[in-house]
Design goal:
There is one protein chain. By secondary structure, the protein is mainly beta. It has helices at 2-14, 29-35, and strands at 43-53, 59-66, 69-72, 80-85, 90-97, 100-109, 112-119, 125-132. The chain has an 8-stranded antiparallel barrel. Strand 4 and strand 5 form a beta hairpin. The N and C termini lie far apart (40 Å). 41% of the residues are buried.
Length: 137
């Protein structure tokens, strides 16, 4: 179970690194379509996940945004990530592993971002922060 919770932290973080605590609900289908066209936040991000409630640990992981879609930056397919970043920077992500899931909301602004996350059943919850990583030359 601890390993699964760890995946939630990773994915939520990858959730990037950018989920909006200000969003009252998950973005609509239209928002996901608009996000797919936003490239302002595309690139590699370093996401830190902080747990304020529950047995989950603190983590830092890379995340990638491509065409406004949040995805894994590493080849670990033991979990799935579905997320989007709107042109405004509003971000929503769902992470699933082993029949469990976690959600995160937040906002990216410029080269950084922050938000909140929670695991299904409120097993764990907390905040996340993200910083855009410099592109390799």
């Amino acid at each position: 179970m601890s390993k699964l919770v760890s995946k939630f932290g990773l994915v939520t973080a990858i959730a990037i690194g950018a989920l909006v605590a200000a969003l009252p609900a998950a973005p609509s289908q239209a928002a996901h379509k608009r996000a797919a066209h936003s490239r302002a936040y595309d690139g590699l991000w370093s996401v830190s996940i902080y747990t304020s409630y529950g047995p989950c640990a603190t983590y830092r992981y890379p995340a990638r945004i491509v065409g406004g879609r949040v995805m894994q930056a590493v080849n670990d397919f033991s979990y799935q990530i579905a997320g989007a970043v709107a042109a405004s920077g509003a971000t929503a992500v769902t992470v699933a592993s082993g029949g469990q899931y976690a959600v995160g909301y937040g906002r990216l602004r410029g080269a950084s971002g922050a938000g909140r996350w929670s695991a299904a059943g409120n097993l764990c919850s907390g905040t996340w922060s993200a910083i855009r990583r410099a592109a390799a030359n």
